[in-house]
Amino acid sequence: MSRKGARRTALFLLYQWDVTGQPLASLYEGEVDEWARTTAEEVAAGATELDRRIEARMTRMLAAGWIDEVQRLRHEYPTADWKRLGHGYPEIAAYLDGRVSLEAACTSTIRQVRQYARRQYTWFRADPRVTWIAAGLEEALGRLRVGMMGAEAS
Fold it and tell me: Distance between CA atoms of 131 and 141, rounded to whole angstroms?
């Protein structure tokens, strides 16, 4: 299987896993490319922490005045294309219009961000120029201090 085909397989497995909630192993039919299987399993393994972080960020954004920001932007730019502003802006605008509840807007935004984050992980994992480091600040600073990221960043 080509690398392009393996990427499609990995994305398909992750999509099915995200939509159905079934264990990844139950989604394999026949022989699955090793790279696609490994990629999908690694994304799934880190998904619980990623989901928690995405939900926490949504909560922080709301507490920091995201709804007020969207109201201000709607007033200042009435013809803005909300989809171009990023995940969640169209949903918050729909909430302000009374078309959806705040809970529905948040649920939709979290789902979209989760899907986008998983796609990014799959794309970047396939790029040999990307070096993964732990999410912790100390690990990142340690790598910067010893110059491990110099070549990758250029």
Answer: 14
Q: Whose CA is closest to 6, among 125, 113, 130?
A: 125
- Give a yes or no: residue 134 inside a domain: yes
| Domains of the chain: total | 1
Six-digit token pair at 54? 């995405």
- Domain membership flag for residue 16: no
What value, to the nearest 5°, has the Cα angle with vertex 130 and ends 125 and 131?
100
Q: How many CB atoms lie within 10 A of CB 44?
A: 16
Residue 91: give its domain's CATH number. 1.10.287.890
Domain of residue 143 covers 47-153
pLDDT in tens, the chain (154 residues): 565 666 666 666 666 666 666 666 666 666 666 666 666 666 666 677 788 888 999 999 999 999 999 999 999 998 888 878 889 999 999 999 999 999 999 999 999 998 888 888 777 777 777 666 665 667 666 666 665 545 554 4
Would residue 60 count as lying in a domain?
yes
Q: What is the pTM of this model?
A: 0.60
